[in-house]
Design a protein that fits this description.
Length: 305
């Protein structure tokens, strides 16, 4: 069986305190209701992200509602089932402190060897992140995750730059959320700043740390054209394919080269089967290119034998 690495997935409730407690629950199913993301997945995102910001302004509330329902299904039981049914052998699992931490993912990885845990920064502790990051790498963390919107700090903040500087010495990749998106509804949405996902913040960060290897999560979502324009010349940036269309994955391959494109699903926010179908269609039957995007690029970036 061919090995496949999903470079972007989550476990636990990444939006609320104590989110790690969701991981061990069993029998959890998605709440019934209209799911606009499923509609887009059924079309392999064709004509969905292509209209970019305009579509998101019109449909953002429905996308957020669907994302929140999916977030509440992120148990280890569902995670395993999703990997098994799609033949995915390994999955990078991303924390978002303080809601889901590296320790939560480390415990899950002890039960599921296909999990590749990343670490994160708990900005609420207001302390030097270096010692905690080093300890997590020693315990098996294979990268660092940054989420400027949920963590409410831009990628250009002094706190984020200090974390990247401290982590850079480990030679492991840094995956940042990339693209304007929203996660909260009603009164809760007042505190979040979706514009922190704009790509000019990411360009500042990757230019400030040219020896650090970065992964642009979702290739920018609706801002994918900005990723191509602003990050396409940055040789220390890789992109992952979650929630991009077949045509756009081909553009990403053309811009970043086949060596710097990674397969990702953003499970549970994205389903793995359509994410795989998109990459395979983008490769047009080129098995070497498929292997590179589905496994080899991530394996090399993560230092996996």
């Amino acid at each position: 069986m061919d090995q496949i690495i999903d470079a972007h997935s989550h476990l636990g409730d990444i939006l609320y305190p104590g989110g790690g407690s969701l991981i061990g629950r069993t029998g959890v199913r998605k709440e019934p209701g209209f799911d606009l993301i499923s509609v887009a997945e059924g079309r392999l995102y064709k004509d969905f992200l292509g209209f970019g910001r305009v579509v998101y302004r019109l449909t953002g509330r429905w996308v957020t509602k669907a994302s929140r329902a999916r977030n509440r299904t992120a148990t280890l039981e569902n995670f395993r089932h999703s990997m098994d049914e799609t033949g995915i052998t390994h999955s990078v699992c991303l924390p978002i402190p303080p809601y889901v931490n590296f320790a939560d993912l480390r415990r899950a990885a002890d039960k599921e060897p296909g999990i590749i845990p990343f670490t994160g920064v708990d900005y609420t502790k207001n302390e030097d992140p270096g010692p905690a990051l080093s300890a997590n790498v020693e315990a098996g963390a294979r990268g660092l995750k940054l989420h400027p919107i949920i963590q409410n700090l831009p990628l250009t903040s002094a706190e984020t730059q200090a974390a990247v500087e401290a982590f850079g010495s480990h030679g492991l990749p840094v995956l940042f959320h990339c693209g304007v998106s929203s996660y909260y509804l009603a009164a809760e949405s007042i505190a979040e700043k979706p514009h922190y996902g704009e790509i000019h913040y990411a360009r500042e960060l990757v230019k400030a740390f040219p020896t650090v290897r970065f992964i642009a999560g979702h290739s920018g979502l609706f801002e994918v054209h900005d990723v191509i324009r602003l990050l396409g010349d940055c040789k220390n940036v890789w992109v992952e394919t979650s929630m991009q269309s077949v045509a756009m994955v081909r553009r990403l391959i053309a811009t970043f080269g086949p060596e710097r494109v990674l397969f990702g699903s953003d499970w549970p926010f994205g389903n793995r089967a359509p994410a795989l179908a998109i990459v395979r269609a983008a490769c047009r039957g080129d098995r070497g290119l498929e292997r590179r995007i589905l496994f080899e690029n991530a394996a090399e970036l993560l230092g996996m034998n």
